[in-house]
Amino acid sequence: MKVVQINSVCGVGSTGRIAVDISNKLNDEGIENYIFYGIGESKYKNAIKFGGEFNVRTHQLATRLLGKHGFYSKRATKELVEKIKNINPDIIHLHNIHGHYLNVEVLFKYLATSNKRVIWTLHDCWSFTGHCAYYDYVQCNKWKSECYSCPALKDYPKSLIFDRSKKSYNDKKRLFNSIKKMTLVTPSKWLAEEAKKSFLNRYPVQVINNGIDLISFNPNLSDFRKKLDIEDKFVILGLADVWEKRKGLQYFFDLAKDVKSDEIIILVGLSKEQQKELPHNIIGISRTNSIKELAEIYSTADVFVNPTLEDNFPTTNLEALACGTPIVTFQTGGSHEAIDRETGIVVKKGNLKELLKAIGTIKINGKLNYSRHCYARVKSKFDKNENFRGYIKIYRQY
């Protein structure tokens, strides 16, 4: 068996790390495999890059000016197809095929005629909408029938002039339904149910929760508090790859107005511009790809707050739990599926008062009353060594 994975990135970000984790599992099974990616760089031995920075920049510009994201990068995608043909895999496993690096029409025309077995892990909703990766924030359900007059054009993937949502929706519907045999995989039950309501409902859907490395992420001691001079503080942590509106950054600014003198907020993943705007009781840290540093930060926190307004199954929740840190999150998408009553508190989406109250409850109860349950839950349900074995089972079902 030969397996090819395709994703925007390799080894970085949640989807990039998932692709590498699956690849390592395949390596353990002695299965030849490769990861094709189009953005950034990777030192991973099985990684193969196509396209390049110029391709990404021109695709991004075309999307913003012309509005049809995912239908540019023809040359780069033809290059990808030729490389796949040379490998001649048995299975092609798709991850994020959006991100300004790939042409879905070129790719799916090849997939439809190649007779290859296709697995597609949906990490968001872009596959069955005419434009957006998420629609909860704007409360739009047009994707269930046909997209038009898109209310989220200025959100990723940003279109500044034209609304091509109707055309994109119908083209994606035609292309994505052209595969004879394809299995969809979603990390959350929520996204599985959404996919079943979409034009992809002819394909079987399986839920495989994201998993993490419990060797890298676990409760550990560090001098992180001492470095920041917050040894006597109750630490409220927030973390994101990119702090955009849907990740709930504004809620931390609102929380900062009410946190007590013995409390401090730490936000990881902020841009330099965002760090300049922080109030005195929020410590801003730029993005890090160091697993060791991430584990130290999670372990330092007393509570991990994830006020995401739109999400699938955030890996950050699992990382926090693995480090023994309880979670407070909004009941949105699949974010709340990672926790139970012993490992955190779920709050009604957008309710700042309840969010603040939940943080207070964690503080009163004490982190130690949650930590053991947090790690135990991850070990039993979200160990990547167990979860990603599910992909091997799917590969062998064909």
Fraction of residues in helix = 25-40%
Radius of gyration: 21 Å
List the uncertain runs: none
Number of helices: 15
Question: Can you tell me the overall shape?
Answer: globular
In short:
The chain is an alpha/beta fold. It has helices spanning 13-28, 53-66, 74-87, 104-114, 165-176, 189-196, 224-228, 249-256, 272-276, 291-300, 315-322, 352-365, 368-381, 384-387, 389-397; strands at residues 2-7, 32-37, 47-49, 91-94, 117-121, 182-186, 205-207, 234-239, 263-268, 282-285, 303-306, 327-330, 344-347.
Q: What keyword list fits this structure?
A:
398 residues; seven-stranded parallel beta sheet; globular; alpha/beta; 15% strand; six-stranded parallel beta sheet; 15 helices
Structural write-up:
The chain contains 15 helices and 13 strands. Helix 4 runs parallel beside helix 5 (about 165-175) and helix 11 crosses helix 13. It has helices at about 15-30, 55-65, 75-85, 105-115, 165-175, 190-195, 225-230, 250-255, 270-275, 290-300, 315-320, 350-365, 370-380, 385, 390-395; strands spanning about 1-5, 30-35, 45-50, 90-95, 115-120, 180-185, 205, 235-240, 265-270, 280-285, 305, 325-330, 345. The termini are close together. A 7-stranded parallel beta sheet has the order 3-2-1-4-5-6-7, with helices on both faces. Strands 10-9-8-11-12-13 form a 6-stranded parallel beta sheet, sandwiched between helices. With about 400 residues, it is an alpha/beta fold. It is globular, with a radius of gyration of 21 Å. The model has no long low-confidence stretch (mean pLDDT about 95).
